[in-house]
Write a structure and sequence with these properties.
CATH superfamily of the largest domain in chain A: Dehydroquinate synthase-like - alpha domain
Distance between the termini of chain A: 36 Å
Mean pLDDT of chain A: 95
Shape of chain A: globular
Number of strands of chain A: 10
Radius of gyration of chain A: 20 Å
CATH topology of the largest domain in chain A: Dehydroquinate synthase-like, alpha domain
CATH class of the largest domain in chain A: Mainly Alpha
Largest interface: A-B, 30 and 30 residues
CATH architecture of the largest domain in chain A: Up-down Bundle
Largest sheet of chain A: 6 strands, parallel
Oligomer: homodimer
Strand order of the largest sheet of chain A: 2-10-7-5-3-4
Low-confidence stretches of chain A: none
């Protein structure tokens, strides 16, 4: 670590914290907010809750819900038009990673103009964005605290990683009660995404003493709570998964990720697979690939996962990886790549597209296209 | 924990990170900054470094150095006048806790008017402050990342605790190289202040899963590095103490402190004692007093300090407290209250003044004036 940066939004966390939305929005100057969400969150009733809270405080609300899972450039541009046409002044996003990433994309265009693909990569956003408040409805993406925004370029069929300090919102309001209305499958897939953030950020080239404790806390809370959260939706376990997701978000936002995410973006851009579905497939193979570059750290991860201490670092790390594979099966996740992709005819193209993703740069072990192919074949 | 808030500034950390000052100030709109420091930092050459960096980037610089250890209300008001007279637009503070707290006080008056005593207590600052960038020159106060500001009310001879989200600066630039120019005594006193922040925030009533890992990391890094940092000023050990101080600052800023700090403020307000000198005297007695309210947590602190596991939580906690007492002696600290105060004639008055301090509210065990007296007598 030479020089490291650490930036996170202000966080309000806890059951019922959603009630702080309106005063917080007013503090940021809100008179008319653009509210971004999606039909799923709408059906669960949370969009109405948010609208009521805002209106009771005399804040007008323009609503945009044309956001798909793996949000698209065209949706971002449409939302930005709506913001400008209506003279909105603050953006509020409620939902999983998709509506929040869409809201970030909209904010980027509103503040900087152009098309969203102009900002692909790291540090391309030069002008300030309108104030943003996010309310996550899943415990996984970490987008509500991170400087990452993932948008699908429909024409090129790629998920673009857009990374900028400016994408950290002003405020994240994390109310674990919202998770209660989610399906078991979505809770599991989101939690595994948070775990992947924690593991990849912990071994990342940019990991620092500011991010490492957050990664480790996230792994610990995931291990202690994921089964109970998925089995019984216990409020305590869901709250702890929310903390895990937030901690992992703070970590990866500042430390970056690795090739499990590069590949997940590439696959998600082409086949529109739910992001959290890809990690049970890829993460173990990627951890095996990275083991020679970060034996000590992956051994520590292994210990955090299993509680078992071995004489060799390699063995301890491997025990953790194997434990995870079993856990993913127990959670009902799809664990082989051939269950996600229609066939293996595009594997090489997918790896080729994953290579230039910004997440590849921070992977602890340098990876070629051939390496990515081997990882995919091991996970096939 | 019902609902918890967590807010920290953006942090740039590392040897040489001071070079980012000018571009960061410009990003905040700086054309003419008010630079706040003190004669000690000036003598070490850092004020000149900062002025050069700003001027090379065409940012004008108005300089204010009338800041004493335990900064005073009159100094704050004078600095605020200078800011307004010169039409400054950003405040930069470089130094230990004193210049940074003075800069926060100045910022408060510039943004809100009135006198600094109007803002004593929690959440009294209503209007926005000018942008602030802080560069800490000691590893201890944590003021560069915290929402706390401690100013002495000269008339009443009290150190006022002013606590507000608005006092979190925009940016903290932490360059551990600056610590190299500090004396061994100051390094030790500052490090013990950081430790006191870590311990008091860990057992605070407002501690949360967002602050607890930071407190524990700070205790661990303090224990691993303080002797080497004080003995040899090793750059690696100083860097690690900087990380400890920053982590402890993030923790106490959001979790609050306890009665060791209430008493330290009361004593410092009356006798102008260096803040870091008071903790070796008071912290062990306060930890003993709090033991019955937080046995599990103080046992964990004990384990982090000594590495020794005992069957009883109380014993494990006590071992940690005793270890600390020996460590403070080894570091050359004054460890009895009668070495700091001229006599015991004002003890009751000091305890009486400590009671309404904002830090008393978050102490894990409720304390009466009589309790504070007992703590002082135990430390006499």
């Amino acid at each position: 670590m030479l020089i490291t940066k650490f930036a996170i939004p202000e966080v309000i966390f806890g059951n019922g914290s959603i009630k702080y939305l309106a005063p917080c929005a007013r503090r940021l100057g809100a008179k008319r907010v653009l509210l971004v969400s999606d039909p799923g969150v709408e059906r669960a009733g949370w969009v109405e809750v948010v609208m009521d809270l805002l209106r009771k405080d005399s804040i007008e609300c323009v609503y945009f819900n044309e956001v798909s899972s793996n949000p698209r450039d065209v949706q971002v541009h449409k939302g930005a038009e709506l913001y400008v046409e209506n003279g909105a002044d603050v953006i509020v996003g409620i939902g999983g990673g998709s509506p929040i990433d869409a809201a970030k994309g909209i904010s980027t265009i509103v503040g900087n103009g152009g098309r969203i693909r102009d900002y692909e990569g790291a540090n391309k956003i030069m002008r300030p964005l309108p104030p943003m408040i996010f309310i996550p409805s899943t415990a996984g993406s970490g987008s509500d605290v991170s400087q990452f925004c993932i948008i699908t370029d429909v024409e090129r069929q790629v998920k673009m990683s857009i990374i900028s300090r400016s994408l950290v919102p002003n405020l994240s309001i994390i109310d674990p009660m919202i998770l209660m209305t989610k399906s078991r499958e979505l809770i599991a897939a989101s939690a595994v995404d948070a775990l992947a953030h924690a593991v990849e950020s912990y071994v990342s080239r940019m990991a620092s003493p500011f991010t490492e404790p957050q990664s480790m806390q996230a792994i610990q809370l995931f291990m202690e709570n994921v089964r109970e959260a998925v089995d019984s939706k216990s409020p305590e376990a869901l709250k702890n998964l929310s903390i895990a997701s937030t901690a992992a978000g703070m970590a990866f936002s500042n430390a970056g990720l690795g090739i499990a995410h590069s590949l997940a973006h590439s696959i998600g851009g082409r086949f529109d697979v739910l992001h959290g579905m890809v990690h049970p497939v890829l993460l173990p193979s990627v951890m095996r690939f990275n083991l020679m570059s970060r034996p000590k750290k992956l051994a520590r991860v292994g210990f955090q996962i299993t509680g078992v201490q071995c004489r060799s670092e390699e063995k301890q790390a491997m025990k953790g990886i194997e434990y995870l594979e079993q856990l993913f099966l127990d959670l009902g996740a799809t664990c082989r790549l051939n269950d996600i992709l229609p066939d293996d005819s595009e594997l090489e193209l997918l790896c080729h597209k994953a290579l230039p993703d910004a997440c590849t740069l921070t992977n602890p072990r340098e990876a070629t296209c051939k390496d990515l192919m081997s990882i995919c074949e091991a996970a096939w």
